[in-house]
Amino acid sequence: MKKGWEAVIGLEIHAQLSTESKIFCGCSTRFGDEPNSNTCPVCLGLPGSLPVLNWRAVELGARAALALGLRVNEVSIFARKNYFYPDLPKGYQISQYDRPFSSDGHLEIVTAERDEGGHAREWRPFEVRITRLHLEEDAGKNVHEGLPRTDLYSYIDLNRAGTPLAEIVTEPDFRTSWEAYDYVNHVRRALQWVGASEADMEKGNLRCEANVSVRRVGEEKFGTKVELKNLNSVRFMQRAIEFEIERQIELIESGGRVAQETRLWDEREACTRVMRSKEEAHDYRYFPEPDLQPLAVNADWIEQVRRAMPELPDARRKRFMGQYRLSFDDASLFTRDHALADFYERAAAASNPRGAANWLKGELLRELDAAGLAADASPVSPEELGALVRAIDEGRISGKQGKDVLVEMFRTGKGASQVIEEQGLAQVSDAAEIEKIVTDVLAANPQQLASYRAGKEALFGFFVGQVMKASKGKANPKVVNELLKEKLKAE
Ligand code: ADP
Ligand code: MG
Ligand code: ZN
Q1: How far does residue 196's CA lie from ligand 3's centre (Å)?
Q2: Cβ(18) to ligand 1 under 6 A?
Q3: What is the pLDDT of residues 114-140, one digit of tens each?
Q4: Across 185-324, where does the E strand assignment appear?
Q5: What whole-number distance in Å separates Cα of residue 188 and Cα of residue 357?
Q6: Is residue 9 in contact with ligand 1, taking CB distance under 6 Å?
Q7: CA distance 455 to 80
Q8: pTM value?
Q9: All domains of the chain, ordered by start, with CATH?
C-alpha cells in the first residue's frame, strides 16, 4: 500500500446452510434440477401461503455461529426486507434485522502478508469482530440463455428461492487484503468443519462482498466505502480489494472523491467497474415478519449444540502441536480439513507422529492433491500409511524405496506389505543371513582384509559394497555396517 495511507475493509459473507429442504417450506434445496421444479406456494410467494421454520436451518445456523465465536441470542426476530426485483416474487425477503440470531463475535484467526510469489511471510494472530450472523432466505435467479441478438431469452428460476442462508457481517476491522483473505478462508473451513455449509465459492454456496475505503494514516474518520461484488473466489476477492485500494488512493490524490457505489470485479481485465451508485441508503422498510413467531432458543439447547460439535480446527491445531510435537505449519496443514486431521491421527497411531507427518505431508498429500482427492477418499488408508512408515523405521525397506512403494500403493490400493513383497524389496535384516555373506566376502578378499587390518581403514567402504552386491542390494545397510565393524576387527 502507498505510504501514508491505510485501508479499511469490512466483509459480508452469505453462506448456504446445508439443509435438505428450504428454510420456510419442504421443497428440496438440491442444485441443478429442472428450473422451477423445486417450488411450492410458499417459495413462489403465492398469496395465502404461510412460512414454517425449518429447525435444521436453525441448528446449522447455531453451529456456524458457535464455530465463529459468536453469541447465540435466546430470542431473535424474523423481519421483512422489502424490495422489488423479479427474482423475489413476494416483494420482500424474510431476513433478520434489529434482533439477529447471533451477534458479538470475537474470532481469532492467523494471518500473514504474502511475498511476490504468494508465499506467506510471518504468521501472526489477528482478531476479527463479527457484528452478527443472521438467518435469511435466498432469492431466485434470473437466467439469461441463448445467443445474443438472435435467440436470447431470459427466465426466472425459483429453485433457489427460500434456500437457507447465514449472513455473516464483520466490523470494518481489516487493514489489508491478506487479512480479509485469511478471514474468509478461516470462515470457509470453520463452516465446512462443523457441517454447517459446503462453503464452496465456485458452486455459489458461499458468496462474499467486500466493503473498502481508504484514509490517511492518523485520520480517525472512515472514508467513503465502495462495495465490491462478483468475487468468485477468495483469491479474486483479495485481488479486487488490492485494486480498489490503489484506485481510491490515486483518485483522492489527484483531487477526486470516492463515490459511494457498488462495483463489480472483472477478473479478465483485473479491475473493478461501477455496477450501481449507492448515493442514497436503501430504505428496505424492515418490519417484523407477522407470519412467524419470534425465534426462541434456550441456554440448554445452545449448550447441546455446542457439545455435539467436533473439536474445532484451531483447538485441534494447538493439540497437534502439543501432543505430536508438530510445527505450526505442519499442524495447520493437517487441520486444513476435518478428514485430513482424522487421517493424520490414525496414521500416527498406526506408526509414530513424526514419521506419519513426514510421509503424509511429503508424499501422500502430493498424490492426493494431484488427483484432486480428499483424505477420506485416499486409496492408501491411514493404517497402511502407518504400515509403510513402520517398514521404513524397522529397516525392512529404505526411505528411497518407500517413495516408490507409496506411489504403487496409491495406484493400486494395495497394502504396504503386499507391495514390498511383490516388488521383492524387503531388506534382509536377519543378522545370521548377513553374517554368512560377510564371512564369504572376507574369505574371498584376503589381500584387502590384510591391508585393512594393517591400518587402511578407507577399505571399509569396499567391504560394504561387496556385501551389498552379494545380497543383491537387499541387505539392511545398518546391520551390514555393524557386522563388518565387528568381523574386520576380530582376528
Ligand atoms: P450498508 O448499510 O451499506 O450495508 P453497513 O453499515 O451494514 O453498511 O456495513 C456493511 C459492511 O461494511 C460491514 O462489514 C461494515 O464493517 C463495513 N463498513 C462500514 N463502513 C465502512 C467503511 N467506511 N469502510 C469499509 N468498510 C465499512
Ligand atoms: Mg450491507
Ligand atoms: Zn417451496
Answers
A1: 21
A2: no
A3: 988 888 888 899 999 999 999 999 999
A4: 206-216, 226-229, 261-266, 271-277, 287-288, 295-296
A5: 24
A6: yes
A7: 94
A8: 0.85
A9: 11-216+277-299 (no CATH), 311-422 (no CATH), 431-489 (1.10.10.410)
